[in-house]
Write the structure tokens for this entry.
Amino acid sequence: MSQKLRFGVLSTASIGVRKVIPAMQRSESTTVAAIASRDLNKARKVASDLDIPRVYGSYEALLADPDIDAIYNPLPNPLHVPWTVKAAEAGKHVLCEKPLSMTVAEAQSLLAVRARTGVKISEAFMIRSFPQWLRLRELLQEGRVGELRSVTGFFSYFNVNPENIRNRVETGGGGVYDIGCYCIHASRYAFGQEPTRVVAALDRDPQMGTDRLASAILEFPQGHAIFTCSTQLIPYQRVHFLGTRGRIELEIPFNAPNDRPTRLFIDSTGDLSGSGITAEIFPVGDQYTMQGDAFAKAVRGDGEVPVTLEDSIGNMAVIEAIFASAASGQWTNPQT
């Protein structure tokens, strides 16, 4: 293996081109050495724009490249598991975009693949490598809020383009798969537990069929988490972590900017005027660069990947339970 972990990218998906590839190219531990697309001209254009040295007109050709150590998989959601399996069987480590799969069973199938091939496979929840989230866990473990009892989250954007992949049912579109997964992940991360049951309500777009507004309650042994996500509301995001003696708030929890500091607020008094609130400020950094660095570190044998398959299966179980609850109108138990 070269000094830098050499990534190959499957497709010219927007998240890769706009955020992940440039971030990994700036890293001291990762580089993007090749990109593949079924449209060779698209791949050539992206490679030229982003200074990627090798281009392939098929995903299979990229997987066959012996000079590629790892694959970044930002394909449409239904293709996450099939191409992650093919990459692993080609001996490549895999960083796969979220959601890792469409079902719990799909995600579970990767356990055998990991065991058989010995490669690292991780879901790309970039927040797990970012300082404000690492600090959040430290504060919770230190008891800064007392006993954590409630996590409340909100995540939304506005997109009504029927051609957009996020608005197509057949490609795993809709709010829960796209952004609700972050709220679920955040609550499981904070509590360090799995929810025992969930109840949810979904509103689907009458033309596109995707869930455009979703709200859920997750019941944990230690407390409750509630969240709302939407693909058709004004862009907004915030998460609060409330305990018996304090509260923590992440100002920009998910799309942390890479051009200015981020802030975490700690409320230690509950004074509604805000006099008891202090802020911790985190230096400018790119969470996608940090994600790649953490993945490369694990590949080199220094620690675990930021998000394990077991963690991803737990998240997927909650997503499945949310859809089942919304359909039945009943509390539903996540099943792994």
Summary: Residues 169 and 210 are 6 Å apart (CA to CA). Residues 309-328 form the longest helix (20 residues). The longest strand covers residues 232-243. The two ends are 35 Å apart (CA to CA).
